[in-house]
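Job type: complex structure
Entries:
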Amino acid sequence: MSDLDIAEVAQRAGVTAATLRFYEEKGLIRSIGRRGLRRVFGNDVLERLALISLGRAAGFSLDEIGRMFAPGGTLDIDRGLLAERADELDRTIRRLGALRDGLRHAAACPAPSHLECPTFRRILRAAESKSLARRLPSTRRSL
Amino acid sequence: MSDLDIAEVAQRAGVTAATLRFYEEKGLIRSIGRRGLRRVFGNDVLERLALISLGRAAGFSLDEIGRMFAPGGTLDIDRGLLAERADELDRTIRRLGALRDGLRHAAACPAPSHLECPTFRRILRAAESKSLARRLPSTRRSL
DNA sequence: GCTTGACCTCAAGTCGACTTGAATTTGCAT
DNA sequence: ATGCAAATTCAAGTCGACTTGAGGTCAAGC
């Protein structure tokens, strides 16, 4: 059940073959060997890729994710770091929630121009102070 | 109360002077004139910058934001677009919420390795399917 | 046996939003 | 009047995560 070629891994993981090569080059995944020139992957690579995807979604950079894989191939994530990232995520969520409410109001607001709407101005003022989040991934999956 | 020099605008808006020149070049803001070589800004530019900041926080690109300013200098945001963006934000928030819970669990989980924790594996599986959000700003304000 | 399409490598390009550097000019305080 | 910190322009660089292109290799189906 192992022995996947790059195209299959790509398809199953929802990334391109080029991305897989890129990840391998960065040390994030490994191929189990070669068939001629071509890489052969074990199916454990899929779990690894899921892990990478999850990490990205949580706002970790590829480098950070790379550091989470212990030499043995197992996972070695600092639990404190996880909690910290969860808190960070939580703050982001709160801000985005406020923003969403603001947008929603502005969309429904009867004022002729948004600038004349008191609520919109309040949001503006709030936005003026502090801004947002940390890098969040864009996940612009090709087409 | 008008008549701000670039440094003051920069300081008050929390961006660098270079960023202001960049925004002007992109047509996002305008200086009201020059004192010699130097730009002079009206204080309305601060509101404009707040608007830009808000837009960025909501996930709009600078180009998109640029298109929201009507020729007259007033605001011209499609309310449908706003609602759409609010919905998008809402979906993002939900995903991030699930992710946050997942991270939190993983941080507290007693399993020796995250990979052995059933909950973590469930999150992994969820992450495997669909991924995240649209471009969210990074807001890496200077240092 | 031959074609062909998937795969390979390596280098360079892309995208967005700025930042940085070099060379020059100048408004303002002393 | 003079000095200099701060402003100006324009070009190029940066960062992260890939993508794209050129040129070459090769396993498998006909």
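Summary: Residues 15-16, 18-19, 22, 26, 35-38, 56, 61-63, 135, 137-138, 140 of chain B lie near DNA strand C (CB under 10 Å from a C1'). The two ends of chain B are 30 Å apart (CA to CA).
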